[in-house]
C-alpha cells in the first residue's frame, strides 16, 4: 500500500474508521475476497471518494459501512460504534443511497419522502421545514405529486438523495450515485453534496467509477481487486504525474485515430485516449523519447499537459498490456475493405419516430452513416437510444418515417437487411451454459455459415479476441471483459458490413472500455461501419460523427469537434464533451439547429499515413 | 407520536398505496378470486347431466316401457332408443353415447313371474373416464332402484328384482358439486394471496433495490414482519369475504355456520399462509423464483392435497401423510363444515388448533429468517 501525501485525518475528526477490513464471498464453493485488509478513515466535513474499476470492492465496503454486510475479519467503526453490533444506531444517524436509489416507483415524490421520514423518525414539527430545504436544494418542488417511476434518471437520483438526507445524517454513504445519469444531473449532484459538506459539516463517502469525479473529492481512496492501492488528496496523485502527460495534435485533421492506434498499448505508454480532438498520452517515464520514437515520421505537435487524477489512476493499476496491443491490431485484414469509395451511405433515416401509447420515445430522427464510419448515438438513460437502435436493427417497427440499412428498406425487407448486420445487445445475450466454442458455432450456424467458413471464422475469433484458451469454458463463467469480447465475436462471425453495438461499455471498467474502443477503431479502419450507443459522453471522442439525443429529440449531429465547438465560450476555450452536452441541454448554444444537418462533414480522410 | 408507531405508519401507508396503485396486486387479490369462482362455479361441474345413453328394449311389456320412461324423464340422461345391440355398440364406439341400457325380451315376464328368477337390466358403460363411469353407474342404479321401490310400494309384483340401493347424499342433498367446490375454492384464493402475493411483493422490493434502502433505516425486524403481515392479512380477508359473498349470493351455496367462526378460523389460516409466504420471500429474492416456489410448494398442494377436489381418503397412504403438512387441508375441512353443516365444534376445533400451531411455527421461522443484512 502506498500513502500519497499527508493523512488528512489529523485536520478533521474521524467519522468512519476501517481497520484491516476483509470480506469474503462464497462463489460456487470457492472463497473470493471482495475486500482484503482495507484500512482507512473518513473525516467529517469532507468528501472521501472510493475509486476503482468493477470488482474493486467499492460496493462491498459501503454496504459494510451501512450495516448491510458484516466483515469476515477486521473492524469498522462509524460514529464511534461498531458497524456490525451497533448497526441499528448507526442506521439512524447515516444516510445511504444504494445504486438503484431505493425509491418506490408507484409512490409520489412527497410520499417517498414521507416514507423515509417516518422510517427515520423525523418529528412531524420539523418536517415541513426540512422538506422545503430538500426540495429547493434538489429542484423537485414542482414535482411533489409526480410518481417516482415517471421521473427522469437525474430527478430520481436527486430524490434518492433527498430521501437519504431526510434526517440530516452525520455521514452520507453514496454508492455509485452518478451511474447512467446525464452530465447536467451529475454536476448538480456534486453541487448539492458540497453544499451539505460546507453548510452542515457532514462527512460523505462516495464510490465512483467515473475517474473525473475523483478530482472533486477532498480525499481519494483507490481500491483494486479488494486491495487498497493508494490514498491521498487528488492533487497529490496528479502531481506525481507531472511531466508525464502529453497532448498530441495532428497537423492534418483526420489523422487522429491513426496516431491513437499507433501509441495505445505500446511499451512505455501507460495510457492513450482521445480527448477534445487530441490524443492524450501518459508515459511511464518523464522523458518523451519513447513517444517521439513511436510517432516518428508523423506530422504532429506534442505539448505537455497538466496531469489529472485519471492519469495517476491508470499508472497505478497493474494490468496486462498485451490485451491492448492485440485490440489495437483488430481486424487483422480479415475484413476485405470494399472496393467502392467511402462515400456510400449505409444507414439512412428520415423522420424516424416511435410512439409507445401517447409517449413519444423517439421524435423525427434524421441522420445518415457512411461506410467505415463510427457513428455514436449519445444521451443519458431514457433518451431513446435503445429504441432507435432496435428500429435500426429491425427488432421494433417504426411508428412513422423511413429507414434504409445497407441499401435495403428495413420496413419492407427485414430479413435481407439483417444478413448484412451484426448486433450486440445491451444485456449479455449468449447462452450461459454453452461453452465459448459452442456459442460461436451456434451463432455462426444461425447466420448460415457453412462448415468450412464456420471453422475459419471461429479460428479467427479465437485469435482476434484471445478466446482460444478459454474455448471450453462455459460463457457464464467468463470474466466480465471476456464476456463482452465473446458477444462481439458472435456478432462479427458472419462478417457483417454494419455492426450495431448497444451500450457495449456500460458496466465495463475503464480498462476494458479502452480496449473496446481500440478494437472498434481497428474494425472501422477495415471498412466496417459501426453504430454504437453510449451514455459516457467522453466516449464520443472515438466516433467519427455522432448524434446527441435527449428525451427522444435530437440535440445535435456532427463530428466531435463540431459538437464541442458549440460550447466554446470566453471562459471555456477547450470545452469537453460533457460541457457541450450541458450547454446543449440548457440551450446555451449558438445556432445548434444548423448542426442538425444529417450528413455533416466527413472527418476522417482515407489516404496517407500520419 | 412514538417512533415505533411512526415507522409502522410509514411502512403501512407505503404498502397500501402500492397495492392500490399496482394493478397486478389488485388483480391477484380481487380479480383472480372472481375468475376462479366463476370458472369453478359455472365451468367446472362435477355433476353430469344429459348423458347420452342408448336404450334397447327387446320387451314391449308395460313394466319395461315404464322403466324406459323413467330414464327419459330423468335430467341426467338423454335417451336414444335403438332396436338392437349392434346399433347401440356402434353408437358407443363413435362416442355418440356413453352407456347402453338393455332390457331383455323376458324382462316384464321375469319381473312379474312368480319364479325365483331376477329381472336383470344390462348396463354397459364407457369406462375411459372412471369417475364419470362410476357416476353413470350410480345414476342408473338410482333410477332402477327408485322405480322398483315405487312399484313395490304400489303393491305391484316385483320379484327379488333389480338391485335396489338406498341412495342418499348427506349435506349436499342436491348432490350439487358447486356446494362442495365453492367453499373449497375460498381456501385456494386465500392461499394465493397469502403465499404468492406476499412472496412476490417482497422479491420485487429486492429486485428494485428498495429493500436495500429500507434496511439501512432504524427499522426493526419486527416492524418489517408486521408491516408485511397487516396489509396482506386485510387483503386476504377481503378476498375471503368477497368469495363468500359471491358464493352465497350468486351461486346460492348454503352457509350454515356463523360468520364469527369463519372470521376467526379464516384468520388463523391466513396467518399460516402469510407466514409461509414470508418464509419463501426471506429466502428468495427473485420474483420469478419466488413465484415458482410459492406455486409448487403453496398453491399446488392447496389444490391437490387439501381434499378440495380429490378425495384424500382414496389417495395412497404416503400422500395422505404428506397432506397433513398442508395448511389448506385443515381449512378445507373447516370451510366445508361451516358452509354445509354449521358450527360443528368437534370438527372445527381440532382443525383450528392445527392451523394456529402452523401459523405460530411459520411466522416464528419467518421472523428468525428476516434479517437486516444482505447475506441471510
Largest interface: A-B, 39 and 29 residues
Count of DSSP-assigned helices of chain A: 20
Distance between the termini of chain A: 41 Å
Relative helix content of chain B: 55-70%
Spans of chain B with pLDDT under 50 lasting ≥5 residues? 159-175
Poorly predicted regions of chain A are 5-10, 331-340, 591-610
Principal-axis shape of chain B: elongated
- Major β-sheet strand ordering of chain A: 1-11-10-4-9-8-7
Number of strands of chain B: 4
Strand arrangement in the largest pleated sheet of chain B: 2-1-3-4
Mean pLDDT of chain B: 82
How many helices of chain B? The count is 14
Helix content of chain A: 25-40%
Explain this structure to me?
The complex is a heterodimer of chains A (610) and B (376). Chain A is built from 20 helices and 25 strands. Chain A is an alpha/beta fold and 610 residues long. In chain A, the strands form 5 sheets. In chain A, strands 1-11-10-4-9-8-7 form a 7-stranded mixed β-sheet, with helices on both faces. In chain A, strands 21-22-23-18-24-25 form a 6-stranded mixed β-sheet, sandwiched between helices. In chain A, strands 3-2-5-6 form a 4-stranded antiparallel β-sheet. In chain A, helix 3 (109-120) runs parallel beside helix 5, helix 12 (322-328) runs parallel beside helix 18 (510-525) and helix 15 packs parallel to helix 17. Residues 5-10, 331-340 and 591-610 of chain A have low confidence and may be disordered. Chain B contains 14 helices and 4 strands. Chain B has helices at residues 3-21, 23-43, 62-73, 85-93, 107-112, 130-153, 177-208, 210-215, 221-249, 259-283, 287-304, 317-323, 327-340, 345-369; strands spanning 51-57, 77-82, 99-103, 121-125. In chain B, strands 2-1-3-4 form a 4-stranded mixed β-sheet, sandwiched between helices. The radius of gyration of chain B is 28 Å and the shape is elongated. Chains A and B meet through helix 2, strand 7, helix 3 and helix 5 of A and helix 1 and helix 8 of B.
